[in-house]
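Q: Give me a backbone?
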Amino acid sequence: MNRIALFVLLLFVAGCSTPQHSWPGNSRDTVWSAMVAAANTPDYDSNDPRKRWILVENVVDANATISQIIINRKLRRSLKLPLQNEQKDTRDWFFKIQLLPNNPPTATFDTVYKTLVPSRTIDEAERYFHLVDLLLEKPTN
């Protein structure tokens, strides 16, 4: 029984780790600019209707002095899946994104208030980091 409790505790702690992402080959200033742009223009379009949201409010405080971005975001959606009633959802997010003093540039993504479903935070971090990746892509000829 003790082994099961220890295993569950380890899974919980592993699931609560702060997502982070690095951008080798990019300067810190370029990454910071892309991070701020991604925070200001989030993309909630998705092929998966469960991940599609409407942005209602997006307040961004980007502090270059301490390399930190605070985002207060409100989202809504109306979801109608086959054989289910329409589901109306709202979600309020309060994110803290920190550009670490590492080389290559590395950022962490966390919620200010811990969520009951850590996978939602991971989904938001992946969405944000993907947008930063897209902004940092060099155009091909």
Remarks:
- Residues 118-136 form the longest helix (19 residues).
- Residues 5-15 have pLDDT under 50 and may be disordered.
- The beta strands are 20-22, 54-63, 68-79, 87-100, 106-111.
- The chain is about 35% helix and 30% strand.
